[in-house]
């Protein structure tokens, strides 16, 4: 099928295509009108990347810069943001257990923050979850609740357990605004909003629906979308599609707020742990300090000592300096013992007090502790999100184990170095004390008491300094994220339905769908519909195309409708036949077809009539001896060709005059038992000799070629063999077989006519034929 054929097919069925387009556009119109608009709401969140900061720099003395600031893994943070705890907390904060709707345009529209009433549920009482409660508000303050054949779950919000089910639940109950409505299955209180009145709700239908926290979390987990616009950045785009812009904005903004508060809570938790550790150390040191201070005061009071000499002062100052250094070493020793205890207990605590918080200036240890804390945090986040079987958890376990081993080795080496430093410091203090022992006994006793007091006081002051730093850090803590763009509607129109796009799709489908079916049917069509179908089968010339003729009573178009378009096509066919038989003195035309019902007798009659109308003496022979039916009315069917060939009547007895001038007719006669034998007798030769002498045109109406071989017996007497094909009736395969058989028998002068044609393009602009 070429382009021209496609255009012909289109214009032939143009009204079908136009009708389908109109229907498709109508469907698109109603879809746009009745579809609930869907909007896209989006927010942008910046996760502050602290991976570049390291406590090993030594430039900051504050805990926040040394440990509390965590390296952020963007993908892990995404999982935290959309985790069940965060979304469930968001749902609780917004009180979304009750959803409100307004019924209009035969659908329920989300009425978040637009409903004139509020429904309070009593969570200690069973509630009906799932069905839509239709609410009919009356101006007198009463209302009606209706549920129509819906399945429901009886649920207790306090316990979070399902109590039972209700199938095909249907009821109607009346209540008053501000009064509790209670049944065995639910208990609610309906109130009117402060800025609304019952009068504003006239002619409006509302509804509400109860949902569980798990149902809501599951719903919004599917609705919420999280994207990373730039893989090199730390921006997260949080969006969702919703029927209510306000609802979408509130959910996204609240989710960000819940995430920020959770993040800040974790950072403060680490600071609180540090403060608790320092407070414990302060309590221990404070008790020792108070004891030594009392001893010092008591000794000085008893011995009435006001001052010591210059040598004692110098030795005491040296000892004090050494004791301060020893205090720092002892604090470090306590921290090493704390880390050893942490590793030996196989603790999974995600927060570890940093070395720098206790004055341990070891860059390597700081980095190891920070990596261990980060790994523990990542593992804890995955477990909180129910991802215990995630392969990452196993890798983190291995990483944590290796880090703990490395930390243990580092601590062991640092502890040995610390122990050496303590021993050396104690040796130097002992030398000072030996010198002081040479002083008078009272001064020596005074020095010992003073030494204990100074040591405890140094440790106490050091811990107070670290406590102040930790409190400053906690007060200055901020979340590791920043809202770049709060939640807002994307674009100026809904994302669905897209009216213009729907119309374009409808226009496209309205055109392509019917046309594709037409093309498909055309490719699968097994019958003749166009001249091109015939030309694709054979090289035989199509000498004419006869227009569809609807007259049922009179088959002769030159009698019933001489000026009809069908009559004109037979005149054109006659002209073409004359050109085809040019040079023949006596013109004999055999008209046949593949099967009966294709219009061979109708064509034979009108071809004969067309010649008779020219004044040519013409005779039509009905050589279909197996069928006694006649296309010409008012003829004698008791006599005919079969009787003549059987030598029962004379030739002049079977030739009948017709009402049409110059046209004679020979009927087939009674059906003989042996039609083919009769057609092969010598009498047929005599018949044609007589007819050629007395008539200018001889038209033979022969039997169908594909059903019987009778036509082959008389085909040698014709000057031109005309095969009639019928529009949308003649099978392509059958025509090909008939033509192949004729070619094998070396029968030439074969021409074809397309009968019952209905196409405008095939009929020289006559247009579609209407029955």
Characterization of the model:
The longest helix is centred in the middle third of the chain and has 59 residues, at 245-303. Helix 2 packs antiparallel against helix 12 (499-524) and helix 7 packs antiparallel against helix 11 (441-475). The two termini are 28 Å apart. The strands form four sheets. The chain has an eight-stranded mixed sheet. Strands 2, 3, 5, 6, 7, 8 and 11 form a seven-stranded antiparallel sheet that branches. It contains 22 helices and 22 strands. Helix content is 49%, strand content 19%. By secondary structure, the chain is of the alpha/beta class.
What descriptors fit this protein?
771 residues, alpha/beta, eight-stranded mixed beta sheet, 22 helices, disordered C terminus
Give the SSE layout.
Elements: H1 3-12, H2 14-34, E1 39-47, H3 63-68, H4 74-81, H5 84-94, E2 98-104, E3 107-110, E4 117-121, E5 127-129, E6 132-137, E7 142-156, E8 161-176, E9 180-182, E10 187-192, E11 205-210, H6 213-223, E12 224-227, E13 235-242, H7 245-303, H8 310-344, H9 363-384, H10 391-437, H11 441-475, E14 481-489, H12 499-524, H13 531-535, E15 541-547, H14 557-560, H15 565-580, E16 587-593, H16 600-613, E17 618-622, H17 641-645, H18 651-654, E18 655-657, E19 663-666, H19 675-679, H20 683-694, E20 697-701, H21 710-714, E21 720-726, H22 732-744, E22 750-757
């Amino acid at each position: 099928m070429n382009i021209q054929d496609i255009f012909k097919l289109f214009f032939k069925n143009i009204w079908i295509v136009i009708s389908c387009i109109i229907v498709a556009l109508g469907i698109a119109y109603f879809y746009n009108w009745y579809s609930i608009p869907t909007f896209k709401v989006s927010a942008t969140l910046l996760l502050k990347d602290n991976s570049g900061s390291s406590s090993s720099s030594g430039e900051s003395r504050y805990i926040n810069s040394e440990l509390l600031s965590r390296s952020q893994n963007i993908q892990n943070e995404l999982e935290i943001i959309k985790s069940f705890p965060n979304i469930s907390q968001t749902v609780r904060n917004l009180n979304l257990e009750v959803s409100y709707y307004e019924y209009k345009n035969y659908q329920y529209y989300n009425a978040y923050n637009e409903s004139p009433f509020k429904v309070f549920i009593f969570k200690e009482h069973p509630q009906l979850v799932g069905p839509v409660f239709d609410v009919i508000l009356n101006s007198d303050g009463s209302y009606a609740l209706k549920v129509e054949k819906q399945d429901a779950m009886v649920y207790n919000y306090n316990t979070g357990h399902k109590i039972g089910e209700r199938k095909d639940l249907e009821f109607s109950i009346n209540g008053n605004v501000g009064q509790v409505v209670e049944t065995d299955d639910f208990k609610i209180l309906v109130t009117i909003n402060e800025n609304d009145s019952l009068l504003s709700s006239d002619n409006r239908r509302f509804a509400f629906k109860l949902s569980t926290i798990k149902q809501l979390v599951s719903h919004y987990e599917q609705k919420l979308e999280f994207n990373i616009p730039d893989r090199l950045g730390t921006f997260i785009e949080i969006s969702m599609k919703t029927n209510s812009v306000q609802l979408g904005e509130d959910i996204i903004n609240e989710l960000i707020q819940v995430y920020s508060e959770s993040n800040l809570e974790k950072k403060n938790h680490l600071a609180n742990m540090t403060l608790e550790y320092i407070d414990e150390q302060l309590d221990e040191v404070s008790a020792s300090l108070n004891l030594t201070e009392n001893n010092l005061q008591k000794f000085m009071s008893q011995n009435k000592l006001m001052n010591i000499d210059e040598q004692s002062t110098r030795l005491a100052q040296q000892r004090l300096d050494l004791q301060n250094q020893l205090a720092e070493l002892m604090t470090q020793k306590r921290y090493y013992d704390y880390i050893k205890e942490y590793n030996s207990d196989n603790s999974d605590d995600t927060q570890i007090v940093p070395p720098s918080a206790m004055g341990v200036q070891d860059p390597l240890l700081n980095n190891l502790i920070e990596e261990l804390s980060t790994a523990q945090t990542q593992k804890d986040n995955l477990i909180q999100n129910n991802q215990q079987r995630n392969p990452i958890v196993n890798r983190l376990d291995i990483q944590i184990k290796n880090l703990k081993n490395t930390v243990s080795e580092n601590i062991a080496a640092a502890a040995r170095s610390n122990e050496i430093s303590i021993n050396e410091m104690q040796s130097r203090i002992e030398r000072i004390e030996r010198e002081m022992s040479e002083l008078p006994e009272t001064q020596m006793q005074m020095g010992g008491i003073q030494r204990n007091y100074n040591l405890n006081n140094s440790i106490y002051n050091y811990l107070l300094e670290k406590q102040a730093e930790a409190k400053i850090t906690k007060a200055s803590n901020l979340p590791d994220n920043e809202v770049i763009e709060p939640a807002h509607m994307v674009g100026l129109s809904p994302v669905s339905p897209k009216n213009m796009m729907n119309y374009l799709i409808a226009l496209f489908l309205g055109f392509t769908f019917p046309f594709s079916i037409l093309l498909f049917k055309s490719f699968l069509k097994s019958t003749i519909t166009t001249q091109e179908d015939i030309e694709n089968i054979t090289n035989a010339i199509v000498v004419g195309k006869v227009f569809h003729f609807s007259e049922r009573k009179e088959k002769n178009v030159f009698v019933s409708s001489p000026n009809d378009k069908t009559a004109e096509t037979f005149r054109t066919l006659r002209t073409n036949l004359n050109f085809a038989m040019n040079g023949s003195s006596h013109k004999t035309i055999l008209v046949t077809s593949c099967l009966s019902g294709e219009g061979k007798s109708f064509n034979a009659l009108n071809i004969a009539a067309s010649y008779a109308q020219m004044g040519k003496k013409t005779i039509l022979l009905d050589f279909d001896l197996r069928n006694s039916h006649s296309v010409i009315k008012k003829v004698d069917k008791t006599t005919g060709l079969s009787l003549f060939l059987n030598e029962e009547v004379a030739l002049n007895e079977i030739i009948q005059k017709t009402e049409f001038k110059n046209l004679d007719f020979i009927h087939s006669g009674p059906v003989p038992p042996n039609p083919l034998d009769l057609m092969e007798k010598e009498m047929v030769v005599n018949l044609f000799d007589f007819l050629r002498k007395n008539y200018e045109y001889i038209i033979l109406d022969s039997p169908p070629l594909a059903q019987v071989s009778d036509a082959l017996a008389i085909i040698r007497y014709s000057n031109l063999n005309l095969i009639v094909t019928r529009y949308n009736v003649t099978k392509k395969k059958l025509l090909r077989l008939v033509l192949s058989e004729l070619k094998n028998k070396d029968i030439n002068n074969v021409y074809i006519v397309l009968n019952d044609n209905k196409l405008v393009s095939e009929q020289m602009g006559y247009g579609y034929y209407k029955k």
